[in-house]
What we know:
The chain has about 130 residues and is an alpha+beta fold.
Amino acid sequence: MRFTAVGIAATALVAVVCSSTAAANPGSVDPATVAREYVEAIKGGESRPDLLCAAEAGVPDEEPSTDSPEESATVPQAVQATLGAVEVKGDEATFDVTVSQAGEDTTTTKHRLIKEGGAWKVCGPA
């Protein structure tokens, strides 16, 4: 009976460590999960360099703002982003993201995922 309790406790510990590792390194999971987390970051206005390949992680999203403090103090509009199809072919994958913002056109962009260091990473438009 004592060995069974120890075995159950060890199994639970391994499950906690594995799930913590996956949460700390989202690029290590499947491409659909990385694509979904990327879209969630877009919707939340978050920067997630941990989801990007090395070539993309060092590239700023946009030029620094030259607006005066009064102009840049406006509240940003809500962004809607939807994940489309994720297609996997070996160590590469693509996924579609449809983005819309109030008062602007809706755009759909195909993004590329690659395996980098054994982890799936978003690596620019396809």
